[in-house]
Amino acid sequence: MAMNVENKTAIITGAGSGINFAMRSFCCNVVIADLMLRPEAQALISEYPLESKGAKAVFQKTDVTDWAQLETMFEIATKHFGGADIVCPGAGVYEPLWSNFWIPPGTGTSKDTIEGSRYAVLDINVTHPIRVTQMAISHFLKRNKPGVIVHISSVGGQAPNFPTPIYVATKHAINGFVRSLYRLEDPPVHIPKIRVNAVAPARILTPLWTDNPEKMAMVMKDNPGWVTPEDVALVMLDLVEKEEHVGGTILEVGATVSRVETFNDGGPASRGNGVKNDPDYEKDMWSMMEKIAAEK
């Protein structure tokens, strides 16, 4: 059920920057759902206002952990464009200092609280894309039109990474979730086809990294292995438009672009897409545990 993006409308969370911003250029109309816009995204809104002819872009300030705000994204798409054809729940975080396995709730820089009984990184990286997928399926069914949902996983969906265990867990979850929805592309005849698939990038040169010194400290100085957001966005476009990328497909993007198999897959390193951390970075993790042990 390949879908040509021409004259289509997309809802993209996290499209204020990075991969999701790069993806916006491949759809005729786009609802950018994010907490804020970087200058390049603000320029896009100014260049393609709702009053313009042809492609249009609209910004909807959205906290993806608030389900009511997620509903509003679809309402905005319906109000201005008649509905959405493509949905990308792309907003995500890379285990930040405010929701981090190595900084327990209620300590240090963590904004997770004991009383809250939840990790923000899980709300953003797992609960939000699952809920958006539910909403998108209902949206497509009510319109009685086919639709495509493109998730953003990671090479961390296969490979372990000691400094960011929660992040790795979230991407394993996304891989399993996407694969489990493959049957939506082959429904009974009276139900519109819905494609759900994912892209799994290696380390991407986005503000998620470059604006955060603690993340840049993780990168090996001599071989960072960066992939550009535009590289990933092109693969996401293929996931929408190419017939062979059926529902449940996960495409890895790094030195090569490869399909990630459900079983007996060699992993990112076998395809030259492995990501290595600066060895010194792990010292921070051990130092945190030493401090906890000393508090006994």
TrEMBL record:
Where, if anywhere, are coiled coils annotated? Answer: none
What superkingdom does the record give? Answer: Eukaryota
* Keyword annotations: Oxidoreductase
Presence of keyword Coiled coil: no
Q: GO molecular-function annotation terms?
A: oxidoreductase activity, acting on the CH-OH group of donors, NAD or NADP as acceptor
Cellular component, GO, one term = cytoplasm
Q: Which family does it belong to?
A: Belongs to the short-chain dehydrogenases/reductases (SDR) family.
- In Swiss-Prot or TrEMBL terms, this protein is called 15-hydroxyprostaglandin dehydrogenase [NAD(+)]
List the source organism: Lachnellula subtilissima
